[in-house]
Amino acid sequence: MDRQELLNINKDRKMEVESYHSNFDFNKYEITDENVIREVTQTEGDIRQIGKFMAKKALEMGKKLKRVQEILSSHGTGTFVAWFTSLGLDKNMVYREINRWEQFEKYRNPAIAEASVRTLEYIKKNNDKLEEAEIVEILEDPVEAAEKIKEIEKKGKEEIEINFDEKIQKLIEKIDKAYKNIEKWEKELNELKSRN
Q1: 18, 7 in Cβ contact below 8 A?
Q2: pTM, full prediction
Protein backbone atom coordinates (compact mmCIF):
# COMPACT_ATOMS: atom_id res chain seq x y z
CA MET A 1 0.00 0.00 0.00
CA ASP A 2 1.57 3.24 -1.04
CA ARG A 3 1.34 6.54 0.75
CA GLN A 4 -1.40 7.85 -1.56
CA GLU A 5 -3.67 4.86 -0.83
CA LEU A 6 -3.22 5.45 2.91
CA LEU A 7 -4.00 9.15 2.46
CA ASN A 8 -7.13 8.31 0.46
CA ILE A 9 -8.29 5.92 3.18
CA ASN A 10 -7.56 8.63 5.75
CA LYS A 11 -9.60 11.20 3.75
CA ASP A 12 -12.54 8.81 3.62
CA ARG A 13 -12.30 8.21 7.36
CA LYS A 14 -12.00 11.94 8.28
CA MET A 15 -15.67 12.42 7.53
CA GLU A 16 -16.42 9.89 10.25
CA VAL A 17 -14.21 11.74 12.76
CA GLU A 18 -15.87 15.10 12.21
CA SER A 19 -19.31 13.71 12.97
CA TYR A 20 -18.31 11.21 15.64
CA HIS A 21 -20.97 10.28 18.17
CA SER A 22 -20.48 7.84 21.01
CA ASN A 23 -22.63 4.73 21.18
CA PHE A 24 -22.11 4.58 24.94
CA ASP A 25 -25.34 4.89 26.92
CA PHE A 26 -24.45 7.58 29.44
CA ASN A 27 -28.02 7.65 30.80
CA LYS A 28 -27.85 3.98 31.73
CA TYR A 29 -25.01 4.85 34.11
CA GLU A 30 -26.70 8.05 35.25
CA ILE A 31 -24.05 10.29 33.71
CA THR A 32 -25.72 13.60 32.94
CA ASP A 33 -22.87 16.12 33.28
CA GLU A 34 -22.40 17.56 29.78
CA ASN A 35 -18.69 18.25 30.40
CA VAL A 36 -18.07 14.62 31.34
CA ILE A 37 -20.06 13.38 28.35
CA ARG A 38 -18.23 15.73 25.97
CA GLU A 39 -14.76 14.84 27.31
CA VAL A 40 -15.42 11.07 27.33
CA THR A 41 -16.91 11.26 23.82
CA GLN A 42 -13.93 13.29 22.56
CA THR A 43 -11.48 10.88 24.17
CA GLU A 44 -13.36 7.92 22.72
CA GLY A 45 -13.15 9.50 19.28
CA ASP A 46 -9.42 10.08 19.73
CA ILE A 47 -8.91 6.46 20.82
CA ARG A 48 -10.80 5.21 17.77
CA GLN A 49 -8.67 7.41 15.49
CA ILE A 50 -5.48 6.12 17.08
CA GLY A 51 -6.75 2.56 16.61
CA LYS A 52 -7.49 3.22 12.93
CA PHE A 53 -4.04 4.77 12.47
CA MET A 54 -2.43 1.75 14.12
CA ALA A 55 -4.49 -0.59 11.91
CA LYS A 56 -3.28 1.21 8.78
CA LYS A 57 0.31 1.02 9.99
CA ALA A 58 -0.13 -2.70 10.71
CA LEU A 59 -1.30 -3.17 7.13
CA GLU A 60 1.72 -1.27 5.86
CA MET A 61 3.95 -3.39 8.10
CA GLY A 62 2.38 -6.57 6.68
CA LYS A 63 3.23 -5.37 3.18
CA LYS A 64 6.85 -4.76 4.13
CA LEU A 65 7.13 -8.10 5.97
CA LYS A 66 5.70 -9.89 2.93
CA ARG A 67 8.27 -8.19 0.69
CA VAL A 68 11.19 -9.18 2.92
CA GLN A 69 9.80 -12.72 3.09
CA GLU A 70 9.82 -12.86 -0.72
CA ILE A 71 13.36 -11.46 -0.89
CA LEU A 72 14.74 -13.90 1.70
CA SER A 73 12.85 -16.95 0.39
CA SER A 74 15.69 -17.74 -1.99
CA HIS A 75 18.29 -17.64 0.79
CA GLY A 76 17.50 -20.89 2.54
CA THR A 77 14.92 -22.26 4.92
CA GLY A 78 14.59 -20.31 8.15
CA THR A 79 16.30 -17.14 6.93
CA PHE A 80 13.15 -15.04 7.16
CA VAL A 81 12.35 -16.34 10.66
CA ALA A 82 15.91 -15.65 11.76
CA TRP A 83 15.68 -12.14 10.32
CA PHE A 84 12.45 -11.12 12.05
CA THR A 85 13.52 -12.85 15.27
CA SER A 86 16.66 -10.69 15.26
CA LEU A 87 14.31 -7.67 15.23
CA GLY A 88 12.53 -9.03 18.31
CA LEU A 89 9.28 -9.63 16.40
CA ASP A 90 6.86 -12.35 17.47
CA LYS A 91 6.27 -15.11 14.91
CA ASN A 92 2.48 -15.05 15.35
CA MET A 93 2.36 -11.29 14.88
CA VAL A 94 4.54 -11.42 11.76
CA TYR A 95 2.45 -14.06 10.01
CA ARG A 96 -0.80 -12.44 11.16
CA GLU A 97 0.21 -9.14 9.55
CA ILE A 98 1.40 -10.88 6.38
CA ASN A 99 -1.99 -12.61 6.24
CA ARG A 100 -3.70 -9.24 6.72
CA TRP A 101 -1.71 -7.78 3.82
CA GLU A 102 -2.40 -10.79 1.57
CA GLN A 103 -6.12 -10.50 2.22
CA PHE A 104 -6.00 -6.78 1.55
CA GLU A 105 -4.27 -7.47 -1.76
CA LYS A 106 -6.86 -10.09 -2.64
CA TYR A 107 -10.03 -8.19 -1.69
CA ARG A 108 -8.84 -4.56 -1.84
CA ASN A 109 -11.08 -3.74 1.10
CA PRO A 110 -9.61 -1.13 3.51
CA ALA A 111 -11.72 -2.56 6.35
CA ILE A 112 -9.25 -5.47 6.48
CA ALA A 113 -6.87 -3.07 8.23
CA GLU A 114 -9.26 -2.92 11.20
CA ALA A 115 -10.51 -6.52 11.16
CA SER A 116 -9.89 -8.69 14.20
CA VAL A 117 -7.51 -11.63 14.10
CA ARG A 118 -10.45 -14.06 14.38
CA THR A 119 -12.25 -12.38 11.48
CA LEU A 120 -9.16 -12.58 9.29
CA GLU A 121 -8.58 -16.23 10.19
CA TYR A 122 -12.23 -17.05 9.43
CA ILE A 123 -12.04 -15.36 6.03
CA LYS A 124 -8.73 -17.06 5.20
CA LYS A 125 -9.99 -20.48 6.28
CA ASN A 126 -13.32 -20.16 4.43
CA ASN A 127 -12.43 -17.98 1.46
CA ASP A 128 -13.32 -20.74 -1.02
CA LYS A 129 -16.78 -21.10 0.57
CA LEU A 130 -17.56 -17.41 1.07
CA GLU A 131 -19.00 -15.15 -1.57
CA GLU A 132 -17.39 -11.74 -1.94
CA ALA A 133 -20.61 -10.07 -0.71
CA GLU A 134 -20.40 -12.11 2.50
CA ILE A 135 -16.79 -11.04 3.04
CA VAL A 136 -17.76 -7.39 2.57
CA GLU A 137 -20.66 -7.88 5.00
CA ILE A 138 -18.31 -9.36 7.62
CA LEU A 139 -15.77 -6.57 7.20
CA GLU A 140 -18.14 -3.59 7.04
CA ASP A 141 -18.66 -3.45 10.83
CA PRO A 142 -15.84 -4.91 12.95
CA VAL A 143 -18.01 -4.81 16.09
CA GLU A 144 -20.70 -6.96 14.42
CA ALA A 145 -18.29 -9.26 12.54
CA ALA A 146 -18.69 -12.17 14.98
CA GLU A 147 -22.50 -12.01 14.67
CA LYS A 148 -22.33 -11.88 10.88
CA ILE A 149 -20.00 -14.88 10.85
CA LYS A 150 -22.49 -16.81 13.03
CA GLU A 151 -25.33 -15.88 10.63
CA ILE A 152 -23.33 -17.04 7.61
CA GLU A 153 -22.39 -20.30 9.32
CA LYS A 154 -26.01 -20.89 10.35
CA LYS A 155 -27.16 -20.26 6.78
CA GLY A 156 -24.51 -22.69 5.56
CA LYS A 157 -25.69 -25.37 8.00
CA GLU A 158 -29.29 -24.88 6.87
CA GLU A 159 -28.19 -25.31 3.26
CA ILE A 160 -26.32 -28.49 4.20
CA GLU A 161 -29.44 -29.81 5.96
CA ILE A 162 -31.50 -29.01 2.87
CA ASN A 163 -28.94 -30.80 0.74
CA PHE A 164 -29.14 -33.81 3.07
CA ASP A 165 -32.94 -33.84 2.78
CA GLU A 166 -32.67 -33.68 -1.02
CA LYS A 167 -30.10 -36.47 -1.05
CA ILE A 168 -32.23 -38.62 1.25
CA GLN A 169 -35.24 -38.10 -1.01
CA LYS A 170 -33.22 -39.04 -4.11
CA LEU A 171 -31.90 -42.16 -2.41
CA ILE A 172 -35.44 -43.18 -1.40
CA GLU A 173 -36.53 -42.73 -5.03
CA LYS A 174 -33.58 -44.85 -6.21
CA ILE A 175 -34.45 -47.58 -3.69
CA ASP A 176 -38.11 -47.56 -4.83
CA LYS A 177 -36.97 -47.83 -8.44
CA ALA A 178 -34.61 -50.65 -7.51
CA TYR A 179 -37.45 -52.57 -5.78
CA LYS A 180 -39.63 -52.17 -8.87
CA ASN A 181 -36.78 -53.42 -11.04
CA ILE A 182 -36.25 -56.38 -8.72
CA GLU A 183 -39.96 -57.25 -8.95
CA LYS A 184 -39.80 -56.96 -12.74
CA TRP A 185 -36.69 -59.14 -12.92
CA GLU A 186 -38.22 -61.74 -10.58
CA LYS A 187 -41.26 -61.96 -12.90
CA GLU A 188 -38.97 -62.37 -15.90
CA LEU A 189 -36.97 -65.01 -14.05
CA ASN A 190 -40.13 -66.91 -13.05
CA GLU A 191 -41.39 -66.77 -16.68
CA LEU A 192 -38.09 -68.15 -17.89
CA LYS A 193 -38.19 -70.92 -15.27
CA SER A 194 -41.77 -71.82 -16.21
CA ARG A 195 -40.75 -72.24 -19.90
CA ASN A 196 -38.08 -74.66 -18.90
Answers
A1: no
A2: 0.60
